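quick q for whoever's on today - can somebody do inverse folding on this one?? i tried earlier but teh output was garbage lol. tokens:
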């Protein structure tokens, strides 16, 4: 039962001390400047205790968002393939709302933070797109979902009330024959010896940037002309087929003693950063609106135009469903039209 005691300070200001006593539970106390607030808190607290919700809320008053993030990093990211990316986003959340008690991380506070993030330019000076903002939202959602569902630090999860931004349909930008020739010539003439083989590997296999740039010699079987990806973005094992010039380049490529990476940087154990030579090659080739990931689109587009079916494309690209390869369906229309024509002719003969 809640009781309210009025108190008057030395300055003459009144305050209201509320105590909630229920058998078998610790006494809960709070002070308010207004009587209406005191009554409301007493009623809500008594109801929450009777329903078994209040002491869960108390946990949210003991821990900040930084506490939750650090526990999440220790317990919830062990088997996460993208943990380094997620960890970098959580660094931003620590700086943004890390000092806030987790019980006070409201949908409004999260939305305001995401709006600020979206308005800030990226490190490359470009505006942040919906996908980037959604990835930042998802990083926090992982923390708060665990805090709500498993740790019982918060009574409700605020993230379902924070909508994702609508993302544009996946773009399909691929190189024309002329652009492809110009880009490969510019890469071949680059002062960076890693650029041409790295671009050629991505272009002829359809591998993601992280998959090809992070590949090691242990994954390569030159006798079978394959590069095996043990763990991909989708969590499945996939084989990239090494053909033509890229296979010859790998056969003659020197290996470094300090690392097993195919494309290592000179002074670290990380893959080489090709950002600057890549941009220079694009500029020299006169190619605009083209990103490294579009090499993957180019591989898929050429495969579709050469008759690959959507299931075959999904297998080549490492997609579990056909949804992601539907964007290339229009490129294989001439092939499917020829199939339909052969079937029709066979039916009427």
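ok took a stab at it. sequence:
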């Amino acid at each position: 039962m809640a009781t309210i005691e009025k108190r008057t300070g030395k300055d003459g200001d009144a305050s209201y001390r509320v105590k909630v006593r229920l058998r078998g539970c610790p006494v809960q106390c709070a002070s308010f400047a207004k009587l209406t607030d005191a009554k409301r808190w007493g009623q809500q607290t008594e109801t929450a205790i009777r329903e078994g919700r209040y002491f869960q809320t108390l946990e949210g008053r003991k821990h900040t968002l930084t506490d939750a993030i650090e526990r999440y990093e220790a317990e919830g990211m062990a088997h996460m393939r993208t943990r380094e990316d997620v960890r970098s986003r959580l660094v931003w959340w620590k700086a943004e709302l890390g000092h806030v008690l987790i019980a006070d991380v409201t949908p409004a506070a999260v939305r305001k933070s995401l709006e600020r993030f979206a308005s800030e330019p990226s490190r490359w000076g470009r505006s942040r797109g919906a996908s980037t903002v959604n990835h930042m939202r998802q990083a926090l959602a992982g923390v708060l979902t665990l805090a709500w569902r498993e740790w019982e630090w918060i009574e409700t999860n605020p993230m379902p009330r924070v909508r994702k931004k609508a993302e544009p349909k996946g773009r399909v930008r691929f190189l024309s024959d002329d652009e492809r020739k110009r880009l490969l010539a510019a890469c071949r003439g680059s002062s960076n010896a890693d650029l041409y083989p790295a671009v050629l590997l991505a272009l002829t296999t359809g591998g993601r940037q992280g998959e090809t740039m992070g590949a090691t010699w242990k994954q390569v079987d030159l006798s079978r002309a394959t590069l095996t990806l043990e763990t991909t973005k989708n969590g499945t094992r996939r084989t990239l087929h090494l053909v033509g010039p890229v296979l010859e380049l790998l056969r003659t490529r020197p290996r470094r003693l300090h690392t097993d990476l195919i494309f290592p940087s000179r002074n670290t154990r990380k893959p080489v950063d090709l950002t600057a030579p890549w941009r220079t090659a694009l500029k020299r080739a006169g190619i605009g609106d083209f990103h490294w990931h579009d090499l993957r689109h180019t591989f898929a587009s050429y495969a579709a135009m050469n008759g690959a079916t959507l299931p075959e494309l999904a297998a080549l690209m490492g997609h579990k469903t056909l949804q992601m390869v539907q964007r290339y369906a229009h490129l294989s229309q001439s092939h499917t039209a020829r199939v339909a024509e052969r079937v029709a002719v066979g039916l009427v003969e």
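fwiw The radius of gyration is 29 Å. also Residues 65-161 form a domain with the DNA polymerase; domain 1 fold (CATH 1.10.150). so keep that in mind when u check it
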